[in-house]
Specification:
The structure holds two protein chains of two kinds. Chain A is mainly α. Chain A has twelve helices and no strands. In chain A, about 70% of the residues lie in helices and about 0% in strands. Classes of the chains: A mainly alpha, B alpha/beta.
């Protein structure tokens, strides 16, 4: 238990260090955040246009879809901020030889790498998600209680952990290819499916985003809960997150051992 | 018990066999051909606590591969390594707690932050007590002259400044063993001397075991008391530095400043146990063996053919000895 606490404290220090590093580049920070928010705005306009032509999508109206969108952005914002450095393993750490120095530290390399994330632009996602979520909760007349706030905070973090777990599993491709970042990114993009009601998809995609890559547990099931439509599925999310991370760390260690025996 | 034990250590790499031309590259893509390359061929050595070992050899001799296996970065193909009671490639993180390492130009410091921030993180990572941290920081700052560097961003430091900070970071957590792979590459003489002094001081005080690989043999000459010489994956010498020089470096170099020379001496005279290395109008460089001849005998012969005005002599240094060994049949 003390080991876990130590690791969490160390992660906190790494994160603090990354924040300091990132604040060195103040202007980059502002430009990055703004452009991310603009990109998202384009998507929102697109959804709005869709709803000019239809009343609802599988029973969801515009505001409900936007709530789902906002809740998704909360998790995506946290995940991109915390796990961004996974993209660097192949092209940066391994290709440029910095991976050795990570392996020489007295902590698990995943902790070192994840702690080195500094993707400040994702704060733009998070902010936008927060604004949209609040507006939609008000518009949908969902009472904003302390309990709801705590639920949203907790399950946004759990959602981010689910995304992080999936990204971590994909990041083992770094041990075989320098272009692992593109692989992780392409798998990650499947989360877009879970930004819409899953009833609009066929069986295969439903299976894909609930079982194989459980992105539906990031925001879709939680939003169903906030809307009062499905009370229970949300509570599977933490279990999904834990299982994903157990698998992620196991396969990561296996891949690392293989990598160390072949040499580079 | 030795702090590092290495037994029959072997590392074989599988490397892709390159085929020529664009078609060759496509062939590789479809059916890659591999060939095996044995970088380390069954080496054995023990290192005791507190030793300063120079691990030397030409490029590609297998030095880095050995260091990578000792630090657990690579798993050996076969053989046994025990470092401080731990098998490093099985319990890498455990092993990392008691070692420090510098790999050439790679920095372990946080690039965008002031140096002191990196030291603080290292303190936390290795769970170094406050008292120890302050004591080490004070001492290192003094020996390595870091006073003015601690608040600077790492990216703004010069190469020499960065390496001094790097060395401090490596020794900060009181490692029992430190691996230094080319720590002085590209540095000026003063920084080199500074770093060498630091290594010796810490070794004397804390009995830190240091394994140093370098191409600057002055580093070895100054710091190490034992040499392990590697050639094509095999150890060809392991032992005391002075003994190494005694056995293989019995010769002396001399440069004679001469005048009134008639013709080329190397054509006209033969000297027993002495070789003329280089000869110009004004100077003659010779190399001779202590046991076979003396400088007086040589001068006697040479002065028959010219006037000797001045003599500079020096003992063979490590570099000269190694050159001889590499030139020879790769055999000691």
């Amino acid at each position: 238990m003390t080991k876990v606490l130590d690791n969490i404290r160390l992660y906190g220090s790494f994160l603090k260090t990354s924040l300091k590093e990132m604040l060195v580049y103040r202007l980059d920070c502002i430009v990055g955040m703004t452009s991310q928010m603009v990109t998202q705005a384009v998507e929102i306009i697109f959804i709005w246009i869709v709803f000019q032509n239809t009343e609802n999508l599988a029973g969801w109206n515009f505001m409900q879809i936007m709530l789902l969108y906002g809740i998704t952005l909360l998790s995506v914002g946290i995940a991109d901020f915390c796990f961004d450095a996974l993209y660097d393993i192949g092209p940066k750490y391994i290709r440029e030889g910095d991976f050795d120095k990570i392996l020489l530290r007295p902590v698990h390399p995943l902790l070192s790498i994840i702690g080195g994330s500094k993707e400040f632009t994702s704060l733009g996602y998070f902010l936008l998600g927060l604004i949209i979520t609040i507006i939609m909760l008000v518009k949908l007349a969902i009472p904003i209680t302390i309990f709801l706030i705590l639920k949203i905070v907790f399950f946004s973090i759990v959602g981010a952990l689910i995304i992080g777990g999936i990204n971590t599993i994909c990041s083992i491709s770094s041990f075989w290819t320098y272009r692992s970042n593109e692989f992780i990114w392409s798998v990650y993009q499947i989360y877009t499916f879970a930004q819409y009601p899953i009833d609009i998809y066929n069986g295969f995609i439903k299976f894909l985003i609930t079982v194989i890559l459980p992105f539906a547990f990031v925001a879709y099931f939680p939003t169903m809960n906030y809307l009062g439509w499905d009370i229970y599925l949300i509570y599977l999310s933490p279990i999904v997150a834990i299982v994903l991370w157990i698998i992620a760390v196991k396969v990561w260690n296996l891949a690392l051992n293989k990598y160390r025996s072949t040499g580079n | 018990m030795a702090i590092i034990e290495v037994e029959n250590l072997v590392k074989t790499y599988k490397i892709l066999q390159k085929q020529d031309g664009l078609i060759g590259y496509f062939k590789n893509l479809v059916r890659p051909k591999y060939k095996e390359l044995t970088a380390v061929k069954g080496i054995n050595f023990n290192i005791e606590e507190g030793e300063l070992v120079g691990y030397i050899g030409e490029n590609g001799a297998g030095k880095s591969t050995t260091i990578k296996m000792l630090t657990g970065l690579l798993t050996p193909t076969s053989g046994k390594i025990v470092v401080n009671g731990i098998v490093p490639y099985e319990k890498r993180i455990e092993n990392n707690k008691s070692i420090g390492a510098v790999f050439g130009q790679k920095t372990q410091l946080w690039w965008d932050l002031p140096v002191i921030e990196s030291f603080r993180l290292i303190k936390q990572m290795y769970k170094l007590p406050d008292g120890e941290y302050r004591k080490n920081l004070k001492k290192f700052t003094q020996i390595l002259e870091l006073e003015e560097l601690l608040d600077k961003q790492v990216k703004n430091l010069s190469l020499g400044q960065k390496m001094r900070c790097e060395i401090a970071a490596t020794f900060l957590h009181n490692p029992k063993i430190v691996y230094l792979d080319e720590p002085t590459i590209g540095l000026d003489v003063f920084v080199k001397e500074n770093i060498r002094k630091f290594i010796k001081d810490i070794n004397r005080e804390k009995k830190t075991t240091v394994i140093l690989t370098t191409h600057d043999l002055k580093d070895i000459e100054d710091v190490c008391n034992r040499i392990i010489l590697l050639d094509q994956g095999e150890i060809i010498y392991d032992g005391d530095k002075q003994k190494f020089k005694d056995i293989y470096g019995k010769y002396v170099f001399a440069e004679l400043v001469v005048s009134n020379k008639n013709g080329k001496l190397s054509d006209t005279i033969t000297l027993n146990g002495c070789e003329i290395v280089e000869e110009t109008e004004k100077s003659i460089k010779i190399k001779f063996n202590h046991e076979e001849t003396t400088i007086m005998q040589i001068l006697n012969t040479i002065s028959n053919h010219c006037v000797v005005e001045d003599i500079h002599m020096r003992e063979a240094e490590l570099e000269d000895i190694l050159k001889e060994i590499y030139k020879g049949a790769h055999k000691c």
